[in-house]
């Protein structure tokens, strides 16, 4: 009977044993995203691109300027204020968290 008892112990279900965390291969390594190097000041080429290209954008937000012109978010907010004062864009929604602008169309205002 002794051999049968050892055989029964060997047949204990794995679900009854204490579990150890199982890691997939390579999950312990974290992927680090490259930090974007956006411009903090407007140089001549960026400002020319700003005043020329923004007139053709249908939706103008801080995020679109940051994405397309590779400028800083605070610089994009200042550019939006400047473009609004010059009349190149007009506000659609002015909320404290998100300002949405569109291109200003000729005399149809």
TrEMBL record:
Keywords: Ribonucleoprotein, Ribosomal protein
Protein name per its UniProtKB record: 40S ribosomal protein S25
Keyword Ribonucleoprotein attributed: yes
Family indicated by similarity: Belongs to the eukaryotic ribosomal protein eS25 family.
Gene3D superfamilies assigned to the protein according to its UniProt record, in alphabetical order: Winged helix-like DNA-binding domain superfamily/Winged helix DNA-binding domain (1.10.10.10)
Organism encoding this protein: Xylaria hypoxylon
Keyword DNA-binding found: no
Pfam families according to UniProt: Ribosomal_S25 (PF03297)
Domain of life: Eukaryota
GO cellular component, one term: ribosome
């Amino acid at each position: 009977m002794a051999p049968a008892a050892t055989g029964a112990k060997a047949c204990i279900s794995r679900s009854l044993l204490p579990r150890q965390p199982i890691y997939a291969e390579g999950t312990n390594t974290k992927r680090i995203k490259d930090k974007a190097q956006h411009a903090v000041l407007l140089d001549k080429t960026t400002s020319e691109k700003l005043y020329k290209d923004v007139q053709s954008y249908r939706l103008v937000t801080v995020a679109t300027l940051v994405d397309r012109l590779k400028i800083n978010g605070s610089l994009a907010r200042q550019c939006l204020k400047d473009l609004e004062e010059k009349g190149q864009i007009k506000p659609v929604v002015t909320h404290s968290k998100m300002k949405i602008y569109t291109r200003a169309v000729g005399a149809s205002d």
